[in-house]
Amino acid sequence: MNIKEVIQNAYHKIKDIDDKGNLASYIPELENVNSACFGVHISTIDTLNFGVGNYHDKFSIQSIAKVLTLTMAYNILGEKLWKRVKVEPSGTAFNSLVQLEVENGIPRNPFINAGAIVIADVLLSNLDNPKEDFLNFVKTLSNSKEICYSEKIATSEKSVGYRNAALCNFIKSFGNIENKPSEVLDFYFNLCSLEMSCKELSNLFLFLANDGFTLADNEQILTRSQTKRINALMQTCGFYDESGEFAFKVGLPGKSGVGGGIIAVHPKQYAIAVWSPKLNEKGNSYKGMRFLEEFTTESKLSIF
Ligand code: DON
Q1: Which pLDDT score is estimated for 211?
Q2: From ligand 1's centre to the CA of 192, what distance in Å?
Q3: How far is it, in rounded angstroms, from Cα 253 to Cα 232?
Q4: pTM for the full model?
C-alpha cells in the first residue's frame, strides 16, 4: 500500500462530492473564507510528510486549540486537573449549557466549550503571560515560528460571544472559575483564533502519536500515560455529539474545529490534518469527516 496514493485518491474522490455543509455563520468573520478550499496533510513517525490541495493555507483552528491548552494545563496541574473538569462524553452540542446546572459547574470534558473555558482559567491562574506563553508553547511544539492569533477572528467572536459569556459566568457562580470572566473569555477567544495550516497541524500533533515526545528534537511534552489519556479523550469527546460516529466510521482519536479543520492521530504511526470549511449539522467539517472515513477504510490504518 502506498499512503500517498491512498491520500490522493481519497482527496480527489471527496473533492467532487456534493458538499452538504454550511459555513459557521455564528462567528461572522468565519463566513469570509473561501468555502471551496480543501487541504490534507499527513506527517508520520517515520518522517513521511505529504499534502494535497490547500495544505499550506492557514485557517482558524478554533476548537482544535483546546487539545493544546489541555496539554499545557495537564502538564502544569497533573492529575489535579480532573477535579475541575470531567472526562466523560457529553452527548450534547459543543456550546451546550444544560448539564452544568445539575453537575454543579463541573464540565463533562475539556473539549466542550464549558470545559475549555475552565482550562483557559487554569492557564490564566498559572501562567505569567498567558497569551504569549501559550503561543510560545504552540510554536515550540510545531517547530514553526509562523503561528499567530487572529485579532480579527477573536474580535468577531467576542462581539457575538453571548453563549460563551453565559457559560463562563454560570461556571463562575459554582466557584469553578478563579479569574474574572472577562479575562477568561478574552484568552479563550484568542486561543480559538489561532491560525495554522494542515501541514503545521499534522507536524504539531505528531507528539501525540509519539508517546508524548516531539519528533523533531525528542523533547518530552507529556508522560506516556498523559499522552494515552489525551488520545482517549479525543477518541471519546473530540467530535461532541458526533464522537461515536467518528469512532465508528474513521476509528482514530481526533478533534474538530468550527473553522472546518480536523486533526486525527494514529498512536505510533501518524497525525493527519484535513481542512474544508463547510460544516455538517453537528459542527464538524462535512468533507473532512468523509475524507478521513475514506482514508482509514482504504489504508486500513485505523486503531480498530
Ligand atoms: O467557542 C466557540 O464557539 C468557538 N470558538 C469554538 C467552537 C468549535 O470550534 C467547536 N468545534 N467543532
Answers
A1: 98
A2: 7
A3: 7
A4: 0.97
